[in-house]
Write a structure and sequence with these properties.
By secondary structure, the protein is α/β, with parallel strands linked by helices. The protein has helices at about 20-30, 90, 105-125, 140-150, 200-205, 215-220, 230-235, 270-285, 305-320, 330-345, 355-365, 380-390, 400-405, 410-415, 430-440, 445-455, 460-489, and strands at about 1-5, 35-40, 55-60, 65-75, 80-85, 100, 100-105, 130-135, 160, 170, 190-195, 195-200, 210, 240-245, 295-300, 325-330, 350, 370, 390-395, 420-425. The chain has 17 helices and 20 strands. The structure holds adenosine-5'-diphosphate (ADP) and alpha-D-glucopyranose.
Length: about 500
């Protein structure tokens, strides 16, 4: 099947979170299953124009005036063809979505331009069997395709993947006319959401098939607690909504081959992990104590990720002699909180408040425990990485965390399936109780090794999930064919 995969970030070009990891690895896994996948990505500043081939010019009306751009073609290091939407006015900037903690004020126009460029690519360069959209940045594509179809122009089936319902792309209604959509697209059956333009909603209404990145999250977002106001629409479309857990690119994330680590290791020989721990302690100025439990966290510092829970339990844990290494950026409130902790506990706490890919790998390898007490977690990748790195995850039972980590109950330990520590209530005592269980397991080397081994052997490679995406593509295409047949009958 020919798939045009439209996304706002992808490894190895640009990354702010897990979306980029997925976009950097799922297309290759689909290719391995025999599909032809091509990526569409904005050409941001860090992506050099050299080695890219100009394909065709763009002239798209957004915000009431024509904006010019260019489609450039390249190939990713893993051999996936990539169409870059080049428009310096919108994408040659210091950030992807904003700078200094503030979103760019013209984000609606930027991603409307990008979405319409993706449609132009489908029409002029690569007519696909299906367009795969991801998150709000490409949520307008199904609406544009719907409008084309109404006008008798060629259109294509669509799948929209929801990576995070908390980010919907909300903009003032006054900006709607700048999108080039007919007036009736702004309404309760369209993009409108409490008087605003909602880009994700456009995709949720008009895409043929929807999915999110774990089965549990697919159920959760149909409830008021997790649906962020879109639960009604999602429940109405529940027969079109599926859950597919993310996979891991073990070419990048495996301690046996990871070039970022000071030593490598695997399930049969964990010596290298001890070395990685010592190096992490030394680099961070922590006491080089092999028996001090080292807790790691690599995360966007937002409310989603449970940063407040971590801050609440840390003082008690530090008294017990644990060490904590955090890598993350985000909410200034959390920057202040964690840098204060690092200042007051220099031999026990490291707070690296930057974006640092090699350090993310070294924390995965050097830590004993990995913290992911998320309030919600559509899939999560770091817990999957942690399992492979023998860094036992402590997670809340939500979304993809619930679907990937098996709590170390006595039964699960006995039958060898336990891979981590899971808690339910989003409260400091519940989190602390899970950490207490984890820390006592840490003091029992036989038990600890058993849990580590089970995690290291778990297989979250993309093959299975890619197969499920292929099935969703067939579903979306089939519905169109079925729909048309139904109409002509
Ligand atoms: P999310 O996409 O919600 O941020 P995921 O667990 O799916 O969460 O993926 C996060 C990805 O971003 C992981 O690859 C993680 O290592 C990476 N990451 C997050 N923060 C940083 C950071 N400050 N430096 C380096 N990598 C980071
Ligand atoms: C989002 C989610 C995360 C998921 C990632 C990739 O950022 O927060 O859980 O793993 O997208 O799908």
């Amino acid at each position: 099947m020919k798939v045009l995969y439209c996304v706002s970030e992808a490894v190895p070009y640009v990354k702010t979170g897990g979306l980029a990891d997925v976009a950097g690895s799922l297309p290759g896994a689909l290719r391995d299953l025999g599909h032809e996948v091509r990526l569409v990505l904005p050409r941001y500043r860090p992506i050099p124009r050299e080695n890219l081939t100009p394909l065709f010019p763009l002239r798209i009306e957004v915000g009431g005036a024509p904006v010019s751009g260019l489609v450039l073609e390249g190939r990713s290091p893993s051999g996936i063809p990539v169409y870059f939407v080049d428009c310096p006015r919108f994408f040659d900037r210091g950030g992807l979505y904003g700078e200094g903690g503030r979103d760019y004020p013209d984000n609606l126009l930027r991603f409307a331009f990008f979405s319409r460029a993706a449609v132009a690519i489908a029409a002029q360069a690569f007519p696909p069997d299906l367009v795969h959209c991801n998150d709000w940045h490409t949520g307008l594509i199904p609406a544009y395709l719907h409008q084309r179809e109404r006008a008798g122009q060629r259109s294509w089936p669509t799948l929209l993947t929801i990576h995070n319902i908390g980010m919907q792309g909300l903009f003032p209604a006054a900006e709607f006319p700048g999108l080039g959509l007919l007036e009736d697209y702004f309404g309760p059956d369209g993009l409108e959401f409490w008087g605003k333009v909602n880009c994700l909603r456009a995709g949720l209404v008009f895409a043929d098939v929807l999915n999110t990145v774990s089965e549990t999250y697919a159920k959760e977002i149909q409830t008021a607690e997790f649906g962020a106001g879109l639960e009604g629409l999602l429940s109405r479309r529940s027969r079109d909504l599926f859950g597919v857990l993310n996979g891991v690119d073990y070419g990048q994330w495996d301690p046996r081959v990871d070039a970022h680590l000071p030593a490598r290791y695997g399930p049969d020989d964990l010596d290298g992990k001890r070395f990685c721990k010592r190096a992490l302690q030394q680099d961070g100025g922590l006491e080089p104590l092999p028996y001090a439990p080292l807790l790691g966290m690599v995360s966007r510092l937002t409310d989603q990720k449970g940063c407040d829970l971590v801050a609440a339990v840390l003082p008690a844990l530090l008294k017990q002699g644990v060490q904590f290494v955090l890598l993350g950026t985000g909410d200034p409130r959390y920057h202040a909180l964690f840098s204060h902790l690092a200042r007051t506990h220099p031999r026990q706490v490291v707070a690296a408040l930057t974006f640092d890919e090699p350090l993310a790998h070294r924390i995965e390898a050097g830590a004993d425990l990995f913290l992911m007490p998320s309030r919600y977690e559509p899939s999560g990748l770091n817990q999957l990485y942690s399992l492979r790195y023998a860094t036992i995850p402590v997670v809340r039972r939500t979304g993809g965390l619930a679907d990937s980590v098996v709590d170390a109950t006595p039964e699960a330990v006995d039958d060898g399936t336990a891979t981590g520590f899971v808690f339910d209530d989003y409260t400091p005592p519940a989190f602390l109780a899970a950490l207490d269980r984890a820390l006592s397991a840490f003091r029992d080397p036989v038990l600890w090794r058993r849990i580590q081994q089970a995690g290291m052997r778990a297989d979250f490679s993309w093959g299975r999930s890619a197969g499920r995406y292929a099935a969703l593509y067939r579903e979306a295409v089939g519905r169109r064919v079925g729909g048309l047949a139904g109409e002509t009958a």
